[in-house]
Structures are given as C-alpha cells and as structure tokens.
Amino acid sequence: MALGGCLLSGWTAGAQLGDKQVITLAGATKLAAAAEEEAVKNQWNVGIANVDDGGHLLSRQRLDETQTGSIEIAIQKAQSAVNFKRPSKALEEALVTHNRTPVLKLPGAIPIEGGLPIVVNEKGIGALGVSGVTARQDGQIAQAGVDALPKILGQ
Question: Residue 94 belongs to what domain range?
C-alpha cells in the first residue's frame, strides 16, 4: 500500500533500483538444447540443468539411459557455478591441484567439473550444469551450451 502511494505521488525509484538482466526459461531451454546437441553428437547420456542467478532451478532434463543420480549432480554443479561465480572446475582444481581441502566444507560447493556460469555484460545471470559422463566430458558439454549464448542472443 505504501509503495503504491509513492508510485502514485510521482516518486521514482530509479536511483534506488538497478536494472538486472535475467535468463528466461526460453533462453535456458535453448542453452540446454545446445548442450544436449553436444552430448548426443558424442553419444553421451547426461543430465542437464539450468539455474538462475540465485541458484534456483529453471530447467532440467535427463537424456535417455542416463543414471537418475546425474540430474541432481547437474543441478548442484550449476548452483556451485552461480554461487561462487566461477566454473565448478575451479573448485575441483583448488581441491585436487592445490590441496585446498576446505573446499569440501563450503556450503553449496561441488568441486567437480561440469558447472559453468552464464555471463552477460560481465554479470552472472545463471549457470548451466551437466553430469553423467567423465567430469571433463561434462565440462565439454556445458561449454557447448554456454558457447551458444551469443547466437541465442543474436550477437
């Protein structure tokens, strides 16, 4: 009610609110389709998940014959990428290469390659996660999805 009164009285929130780009369900679906194309081309059965910038699930799919556990791992990889603003592979490298075992205790972190942030104009708008084959192959599939973003955006 108070906000409505402010809007009616001519108060503008422009200085108080920023513009924010978000990934839509349609955009997430197109990214997942590009990732799926890479998986199918290589005959890899995987789960694919898209999350928004808050880590909330937008879309998920499981290709035929993919183990059911892969879909939850795909979601977690995407959430890790958006929560930490970096590929989930960076967490894996911190753990494996640099012996940074505290990574294992980070809430919401899954240190396995296959989760990639979706970035537009240097801002994270979501993430794509893939699971079902090797971590490197999951990463390859996720990269194919994210690489399709300029085409999806018409750039």
Answer: 21-152
Instruction: Provide the pLDDT for residue 154.
Output: 85
Whose tokens are 């970035």? That residue is: 119
Say if CB 49 and CB 75 are below 8 A apart.
yes
Q: Is residue 14 a part of any domain in this protein? A: no
What is the CATH number for 112?
3.30.450.150
For residue range 135-154, what is the model confidence (pLDDT) as tens digits?
999 999 999 999 999 998 88
**Per the domain annotation, does 15 fall within a domain?**
no
Structure tokens at 72: 């939850």
Domain annotation covers residue 142: yes
Burial 95-118 (b: 16+ CB within 10 A, else e): beeeeeeebeeeeebbbbbbbbbb
- Examine residue 4 and state whether it is found in any structural domain, yes or no: no
First vs last Cα of the chain: how many Å apart?
A: 42
52 in helix, strand or coil? Answer: strand
